[in-house]
Write a structure and sequence with these properties.
The chain has one domain (3-178): Leucine Aminopeptidase, subunit E, domain 1. Helix content is 36%, strand content 21%. The chain has helices at 43-52, 54-63, 100-117, 137-153, 169-178; strands at 7-10, 13-19, 29-34, 72-76, 84-89, 122-125, 161-166. Helix 3 (100-117) runs parallel beside helix 4 and helix 4 packs across helix 5. The radius of gyration is 15 Å and the shape is globular.
Length: 179
């Protein structure tokens, strides 16, 4: 893959694509692919909770009573290198006729807005809903990248760099085509 396909300048910032463990990236905020009960889980959610430590779950329980699909909440980063974890709840894929694309876009939009509200310049995001929730990555990638680009183009945003940390080479390739 050509390296120029992995970075795009957008507005006053840039979108990056990397194959990486999201818990190891040094950024202001990491976006977690959370579930609506904010109860921790498998995949990215489980990895972030394990890396951040028990204080992450403690803060979630103290501050929130769940989070609706298509929205996001924020906590401290615990033991992560990130200052914040933004818990975004994407939709479970049913058949594409139950507002899944709209809800996925809303989850990313909410997460990027929270990052900007908290003065974050750098954010790392996973491919929300594409794991156990079954959202087809070929449909998710353009939505994710388009929403990131819109967040970087927003007037007076603090956001300067949005990195998509992808789990596999095939996921990275799909995002690279969308970029």
């Amino acid at each position: 893959m050509e390296s120029d396909r992995l970075v795009r300048t957008v507005g006053g910032g840039r979108v990056l694509l990397v194959r990486a463990d999201i818990t190891t990236i040094a950024v202001d905020a990491v976006i977690n692919a959370a579930n609506a009960s904010l109860a921790g889980g498998g995949g990215v959610d489980g990895a972030i909770h394990r890396a951040a430590g028990p204080e992450l779950m403690r803060e979630l329980r103290e501050r929130y009573q769940g989070c609706p699909t298509g929205s996001a909440v924020i906590t401290g980063g615990g033991r992560l290198r990130a200052r914040y974890v933004i818990h975004a709840v994407g939709p479970r894929w049913r058949d594409g006729n139950h507002r899944e694309p709209e809800l996925l876009e809303a989850a990313y939009r909410s997460a990027f807005a929270l990052a900007a509200e908290h003065g974050c310049a750098t954010v790392a995001a996973p491919a929300i809903s594409t794991g156990i929730y079954g959202f087809p990555i070929e449909l998710a990638a353009p939505l994710a990248i388009g929403t990131a680009a819109a967040a970087l183009e927003a007037p007076d945003t603090s956001l300067r760099e949005i990195t998509f940390a992808l789990f596999s080479d095939s996921d990275l390739e799909v995002f690279a085509r969308a970029l």
